[in-house]
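Class, discuss our next protein.
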Amino acid sequence: MLLRREIGDNKIIVRRGEVGNDQDGTPLLINTKGEAYRVNDTAVSLWNMCNGITFDDLYHEVLRISSADEDDVRKSLEQMIRQFHKISVVEVKEDRISVGRRSEMQT
């Protein structure tokens, strides 16, 4: 899957930008360019969890508080993170531990 290559279970997801509110009180995610996107409270909660967490850890945390099927949770979470990444409100970084392990394996 494309997301797995882009983000992957061990990639670190870090939020960027800030949360605001529209004039009518609707939550907004605002990227570092000042572009604002209307979202719901669930999206804001998920975005707040992206504080340097791996996708795998985020998935397990969401799964713990969700009553949905595991596959449905994974698909929904992948879609949401993909959208966050597309609108530049999260950054995806290489997990330094994983990088170190790969380097060790290559030598």
